[in-house]
Design brief:
With about 675 residues, the protein is mostly helical. The chain has 33 helices and four strands. A two-stranded parallel sheet has the order 1-2. Helix 11 packs antiparallel against helix 12. The longest helix is centred in the last third of the chain and has 22 residues. The two termini are about 55 Å apart.
Length: about 675
């Protein structure tokens, strides 16, 4: 493609008055899908807008724009775009699937059910469609239909673990505990390395009051799961029922380290701290609950009791009064408030409260009933009987936070949950902030280039790239225009081509970025960043092409072409050239090792990771990836050793992988 023609595209984006027929819509669609795949949602929408303006009769750009909007939580906009796409092409199941997701997020379950039923007429064996349809039935409490559809799904996909987990839940709702237990056992039999299977059976065992067995299953779930606070909250309950208060508090501590805003965790830990005499820290837990739920009167009463014990009688009176204003027949409130009034010398109010209690006792003797606490050790979160204030809280059975009510399947975030290596490093201007891991990637040559202000912005090295916002997108399109003018004046300036290539890369136009990198190298064959960036962009193109193969929407043969080993060899050659020009540029060895892993040259990859760690001994990413490579070779001991080091250096997801491989060894 002749390079001069591409500028029409960017002029069209910046100046909408240009005739829409001037843009190459196929090319703009490809760039938009690049941006979508690499999570530049705002940018991708701008590209899809251009295609829609040029060819409003096409279904595909509406679908992809809807997909971008759903990732930005614009569910109403996503639904509207999917509707437009369906009007133009009603035979694509994935469009109904995405519209169904957007309707679910707006609590329109009937509309979502209609979408999934229609999609299943197109793809009757699609697990994701059945999964979401059934979850909608569960939301509507249509358990009989949900169970019948689960039977169908299991007959179609007898090894689909989530179907058994959902049928476990539905069977419990229908009081069929035998079927529920059978399904929970079957789920574990199919996938014993899935923490959800163990957690599901543990919950069922809890309901059957087999608390020791439940704790054992929660132990396995915790070993396999990475930072799942719900597992520890539930295991704490199993331990509490076995009178293991310290163990239960330890679990609440872990759960709240993972999810500091978990109200059930704070409330229950507050109760247990109070039971073991840790009054001040118990008050802190109830303070937190009340900061989020000021009308949680059971928390207020418990805090009042603790304030009274610690000598804060006025604070205790405030808490008791808040409870009695809402529950004027709650006698323990008057008794406790009377005692607090006496402590501060307010005998008149103390006497008044005690008279109320005395009258209630007389009424009780004459047969008048008052609410009393139930005999259970726990209470539902929705239970408002103040007499149950000392009881541990459990989630309601129909709590909407239930995993299987929110775990909808679909191409929303499209995250791969498999074990994946840490990503490639790039030269760019932006980096996503990581509050936990603050790694600074440095190279003296890049630093010197920045000191000389060779580029429009400071060049950084990162494998945690950030998507652009709207202002940044506009800034880089403007930069492309400015650099194009500079190139017209100085056609032999290699740095201008490299700078414009970075702009093209950031707006996800890989073809034109590669064109500029080729021009840069033709003018300065010793400029190693050009080879480094070219290799990375070629790699991303291949990743996108592989992803395109799995999309349900029909695409051309060219876009679904096989990714060949020859393509990766080209990438490797560019990294070889970087290493030749800059032998201590550690990120070239790291990226080449990643490519060698893809090419299944694991021993070559390990040699490169070794070189990385020789130059930079504290690079967590290299330890992580070398650890995975050792595991692929069957060297689990060396792999776990490297993963442990990666975790020590701040890559905490390594610990989850260690658990999984340790579990497999067991």
């Amino acid at each position: 493609m002749i390079k001069k023609l591409l500028y029409i595209l960017y002029i069209g984006l910046l100046f909408p008055m240009v005739a829409v027929s001037q843009i190459n819509t196929d090319r703009v669609m490809t760039i938009g899908k690049n941006a979508l795949y690499f999570e530049d949602y705002v940018l991708s929408i701008q590209y899809f807008n251009q295609v829609i303006n040029a060819k409003p009769y096409l279904a595909e750009p509406f679908f992809y724009r809807g997909l971008a909007k759903i990732n930005l939580d614009d569910f109403q906009g996503a639904e509207a775009d999917c509707t437009e796409s369906i009007e133009r092409n009603p035979f694509v199941a994935n469009t109904y699937q995405i519209r169904g997701i957007s309707r679910i997020r707006q609590d329109n379950f009937d509309g979502a059910i209609a979408d999934y039923q229609k999609a299943l007429t197109i793809e009757p064996e699609n697990e994701a469609l059945w999964h979401n349809l059934i979850l909608c039935r569960i939301q509507k409490k249509d358990y009989a239909t949900a169970r019948a559809e689960l039977d169908t799904l299991i007959s179609l996909s007898p090894k689909y673990t989530d179907a058994y987990l959902m049928r476990t839940e539905v069977s419990l709702k229908m009081k069929d505990t035998l079927q529920a237990m059978s399904d929970a056992d079957r789920a574990i039999e199919i996938d014993r390395y899935n923490p959800d299977t163990w957690a599901s059976r543990a919950v069922l065992l809890m309901q059957r009051e087999k608390y020791a067995d439940a704790e054992s299953d929660f132990d396995e779930a915790a070993r396999l799961s990475f930072k799942n606070s719900g597992i520890y909250i539930n295991r704490a309950l199993a331990r509490y029922h076995q009178n293991n208060l310290r163990g239960a508090m330890s679990d609440y501590d872990i759960a709240l380290d993972i999810d500091k805003n978990n109200l059930i965790g704070h409330y229950n830990r507050g109760l247990l701290r109070a039971q073991v005499g840790d009054d001040n820290r118990a008050i802190e837990d109830f303070d937190f609950v009340l900061s989020v739920e000021p009308d949680n009167l059971m928390a207020a009463f418990n805090r009042g009791l603790l304030r009274s014990k610690t000598g804060d009688y006025k604070g205790a009176i405030d808490d008791y009064s808040a409870v009695l204003n809402e529950y004027p027949n709650f006698m323990p409130g008057y008794q406790c408030r009377a005692e607090a009034y006496r402590k501060i010398g307010d005998l008149k109010r103390a006497d008044a409260d005690e008279i109320v209690v005395l009258k209630a006792q007389i009424d009780a003797q004459s047969g008048t009933k008052n609410n009393t606490a139930s005999n259970d050790k726990t209470r539902k979160k929705s239970d408002k009987n103040m007499n149950n204030y000392r009881k541990i809280v459990v989630a309601d059975n129909d709590d909407t936070e239930s995993k299987y009510k929110t775990n909808y399947r679909g191409r929303v975030q499209d995250k791969n949950v498999n074990i994946l290596p840490q990503p490639m490093f790039a030269l760019t201007y932006y980096e996503r902030k990581d509050e936990v891991r603050r790694q600074i990637n440095f190279d003296k040559r890049i630093a010197q280039m920045n000191e000389r202000h060779l580029f429009p912005e400071k060049l950084i090295i990162t494998n945690n790239e950030m998507a652009l916002d709207e202002a940044q997108v506009k800034q880089h399109f403007n930069s492309i225009n400015q650099l194009s003018a500079s190139i017209d004046k100085e056609p032999d300036n290699a740095l201008n081509y490299y700078s414009r290539a970075l702009d093209f890369y950031l707006v996800q136009d890989f073809d034109n970025a590669l064109n500029d990198l080729n021009e840069c190298i033709a003018r300065d064959s010793t400029f190693f960043p050009a080879y480094f960036s070219r290799a990375l962009i070629h790699y991303k193109e291949l990743e996108y092409r592989k992803r395109e193969k799995s999309f349900e929407i029909v695409v051309t043969d060219e876009k679904t072409a096989q990714v060949r080993a020859l393509d990766y060899a080209k990438i490797r050659e560019d990294f070889d050239k970087v290493i030749e020009l800059a032998p201590d540029f550690v990120y070239a060895y790291y990226n080449r090792a990643n490519i060698l892993t893809i090419m299944k040259d694991y021993r070559g990859a390990i040699a490169d990771y070794n070189k990385v760690l020789e130059i930079e001994p504290n690079m967590a990413d290299a330890y992580f990836n070398r650890g995975l490579t050792h595991v692929f070779l069957g060297n689990n001991r060396l792999g776990i050793q490297d993963l442990s080091k990666a975790g020590e250096l701040g890559l905490f997801s390594a610990y989850n992988i260690i658990k999984r491989f340790t579990a497999k060894e067991d």
